[in-house]
Amino acid sequence: MVGDLHGCRRKRRHARHRQASCRHRPLRAHLATWPGLASGREVATNPDELVAEFAQAFLADHPQTRLWLVAAASGAEALTAAGWDGPCNYDNDTAKFSAVVRDWECRSGARAVAVGFSTLHLSITAPTVDERETLLVAAEHFAFCPDNVWQGSRPYTLAAYAERIAGAHRWDFWWD
């Protein structure tokens, strides 16, 4: 896993996250009840080969990145073992995020490739294949990292976010 592990400075949550706003209403209406997890998919590509390709491409795009070796059974476990605190402005219990990534390792062939101060980059060997499944994965992403939807590309809707991740072999997360 490559990364740029820095200490986390606590920042106050932005008012737009604490207060209901017009642009968030479509998300609240859509997620009135938890839709459940997306089903697992068959992994067609070797996860270790794909993560190696992704890591090489990531390093080429980010030449200042440093390589970290972490004694852990998986990338998901490495997040906690290394003391990564990327989502600390959202929730400071890294073990929760590691558990979700571990589940994605099993269901989607996810592998942690890179981490940063407030980012996580995963390679995905079993991307979603249909609209319903993609929407379920988008709901999981929203629960995991709402900033991807709230502060991502317009429009700020779960459906639009689902379109952006449909069939993607990489998932990138950023916490403000």
Tally of DSSP helical segments: 8
What is Rg? Answer: 16 Å
Overall 3D form = globular
Strand content: 5-15%
| Beginning-to-end CA distance, first to last residue | 22 Å
Mean of all residue-level pLDDT scores: 79
Helix content: 40-55%
Low-pLDDT stretches: 3-31
- Secondary-structure class: alpha+beta
- Work out the number of β strands: 5
Order of helices and strands: EHHHEHHEEHHHE
Biggest sheet: strand arrangement: 2-1-3-4-5
Q: Which sheet architecture does the biggest sheet show?
A: 5 strands, mixed
Structural write-up:
The chain has a five-stranded mixed sheet. The protein has eight helices and five strands, in the order E-H-H-H-E-H-H-E-E-H-H-H-E. The protein has 176 residues and is of the alpha+beta class. The protein is 41% helix and 12% strand. Residues 3-31 have low confidence and may be disordered.
Give a short overview.
With 176 residues, the protein is α+β, with helices and mostly antiparallel strands.
Essential attributes:
single chain; 176 residues; alpha+beta; five-stranded mixed beta sheet; 8 helices; 41% helix; 12% strand; globular; disordered N terminus
